[in-house]
Amino acid sequence: MAKSVENEEKGESFDLDKFRKLLQLMEKFDVSEVNLQNEEESWKIRRGPRYAAPTFTQGFAPAPMMQAAPVAAPAAASAPVAAAAAPAAPVGITINAPAVGTFYTAASPEDPPFVSVGSVVKADTVICIIEAMKVFNQIQAEKSGRILEILVENGDAVGFNQPLFRIEPL
Known about the structure:
Layout: E1 4-7, E2 12-15, H1 16-28, E3 33-37, E4 42-46, H2 75-85, E5 93-96, E6 101-104, E7 120-121, E8 126-132, E9 135-140, E10 145-150, E11 157-158, E12 163-169
Antiparallel strand pairs: 1-2, 3-4, 5-12, 6-8, 6-11, 7-10, 8-9, 10-12
């Protein structure tokens, strides 16, 4: 018999066995996101952290990167060039998701976000909400610092220990 969870408000049930089977298939075939819909139900499932290529709007696009032409030079001179070409490590530290669920920047759509880029937070500052199975958990920074970057979008599904914010420690 399939296990199900009832949604008391709408009288709907959620089939956990179907959900587990779908997750197993996603893992087996290395699928990271699935959207399913029929007349009765709609599922959107994302596995793992969401790292998407940046999108550009309003006609803006990044300038193409120039590549240096190969130059014959002494071995001693090429070492500093290689070090300068290495990408810089990200500045700051991350605040990671303590649970799996849906990430929200504010308590409700009408409310302002808890934090934004540039906000200074203390360890007990509420920075977001993660909703899991209709339970809304307020997430505290647990670190003091200034928000440098918000790494996920409002309404995104997040995984356990997924980076949510990058902060500069104070």
